[in-house]
Protein: glutathione transferase
Amino acid sequence: MSLKLFLDMISQPCRSVFLFAKKNNLPVEVKLISLKNGEQHTEKFRKVNPLRKVPALKDGDFCMGESIPMMEYMAEKFNTPDHWFPKDLQKRARVNEYLSWQHLGIRMHGAEGVHLGERMPGEPAAADKMARAMEDLNWSLDLIEKTFIKDGGFIGGEQISIADLVAIVEIMQPFASGVDVFQGRAKLSAWKERVVQAVGKELFDEAHKTILYTAAE
Structure:
């Protein structure tokens, strides 16, 4: 019985799980869930994740939510290459350091502009709130460039890790509002290109086509 992943690709955590599973050619079955249509509230989905959130994982009778432990679970179960979630104490600590910081450090700021655009389209106050949201986002991006991204490498060191996947999907989210946060950021842009190269451009584009399509509408 294959492991099942329940995903909505508009969701950043879902995209990181998707990238990890597909890049590692894991024997998983992807089932798309539409949050917009409320499919997470069905009784059938509640049995997979009582929290009614995506991503969700079902492995036989075992079910779980939350993207980061989900990727760790798959890394252990399928014995993926060590660089994704290193066994070395200090390398793993660097990965976990970013994963712990990002919840409030970038996730909240990366999505705020998108949410403002959805809640306040065309309202006069939206421009001011968007400007403040961008200030917060730029503060987080400065910190990522100065603290977490290694020169010529990745967040956890010289090889890509799940920390990079979690980071890139959050940083790409403002594209849904037509905001390219990589403009004027040479170090961040170079890191993005390394991530794209590591996972493969075709897979990267597949994971992000939903938000890029939203931006084009």
